[in-house]
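agent> step 3/5: call structure_predict on target 'LacI family transcriptional regulator' (Amycolatopsis albispora).
agent> reason: downstream docking stage needs a structural representation; sequence fetched in step 2, passing through unchanged.
tool.input:
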Amino acid sequence: MATGREIAELCGVSVATVSRVFNQPETVNEETRERVLRVARELDYRPNESARALSTKQSTMIGLVWDTDHRRPGWRHPYLQDLLIGLKSALSAHGYHLLMLATSGDSRDVGASLADPVGYVNMARRHHLGGLVLIDSGSDAEAFEAFAQSGVPCVAVDVAVDGPNATYVMSDNAAGAMSAVRHLAGLGHARIATITGPPGNQPAEARISGYRKAMRECGAELREDYVVTGDFYRASGTAAMRRLLALDEPPTAVFAASDEMAVGALLAARAAGLRVPDDLALVGFDDIEVASVVDPALTTVAQDKPGFGVAAAKAVMAMITGVGREGPVILPTRLVVRDSCGS
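tool.output (status=ok):
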């Protein structure tokens, strides 16, 4: 790839003129500007983003803060791929670039760790990043609050933050959980259990709140032994289902707070000789790809996964450009009815 100096020599202009073409084009006459741009396209020249940020005082680089430590399973969740596609596509469409600021959990790796978010904030400033998108890997809420107070434009996904230049994007988790329970109650189930997400996780807390509210609305008995904690992943769904089936009066229906856990519950029920949905009805949450390919196909609460990324991108761009700070974005969910509940 060509350098700015090479472009300048080929066009017979100064390096400063090449820089102004990309950073302050209105200061260069049209003929020179078109010549520089034509040669730049032919040689696949791209201006240095850090230098451009210093010149224009506005960076097109957005940092993605995401702890990918292999000991923390959050980064492997299937819904993240669609979220990242939506984020990158929306940013690219407006000329922004995504720089991943990930660690392996050891602050020595890159000089930053979610255990000490100041390192990430300093990194953002050192690289002249315009803003940050924060993705929760399972237990990052406290660190994200520190980002929110830093003044750097930031948008958190699935963590409610508040700060001078911060906002968040989240699904309407409580409403989604309520739709799942109402559906099961509408099919005649009264003994409805739930497998929750991890304690302290904000989406998980909202889903258990929605479960309890819908159970009260439907007049169903709220039994604490019907509330079993999971961690959003398959193995915890299997373990929780075994615990529920061991009760003297096991449930006839289960709402799992993630599709991964619902699949684990399905495997446990099948291993115990139960038929789904004849003996046990199941509803999950997320609508990841596996939900539609398991047998029976899983009824689930769908999240707008690409919409998460698009909403996060729009919010951080609004703060960077000064168009206006966006408030929290709460995305709607919808119940997708398949075969795991019967009819």
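agent> step 4/5: record observation. Confidence is low (pLDDT under 50) at residues 104-111.
agent> proceeding.
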